[in-house]
Please model this.
Amino acid sequence: MEKTTEAGKRESAPTRKKRILVVDDSSDLLNLNRTLLESEDYEVFTALSGKEALDVLAKILPLDLILLDMRMEDMSGPEFLLVLEKELPAILEDVPVVFHSALDKIPVSKATGSITKPVDMDKFLEAVHHFIEMGAGRLQLKH
Model:
């Protein structure tokens, strides 16, 4: 997006950083993921539970990706998706939700995909970028 200054020069509007919500009940993993993603110039938000994630979602929109742990104490990843679908369906339509889990089998759900933990950092970042691009493609189709 460009704008023209008073002197007639064209300037590009600054693009916003891609925004990621990471939901995991392990504060160590949240901090590791935050550090890794911020080093790649993502804006990162974290939540230690599904309930906390639901509480902060509306405050951090727009969002480009949700990385979601499968097993948390207050609700599972699939349970979080059911609540999200019921309470904030537009987010589920526009934002890719990706399970980040050590489980071998991922249940059928509205999740866009999954990234296995523990993960090689380069593969993790490559997968994050891929899922964000998928979400951007969905938004372009809607407009």
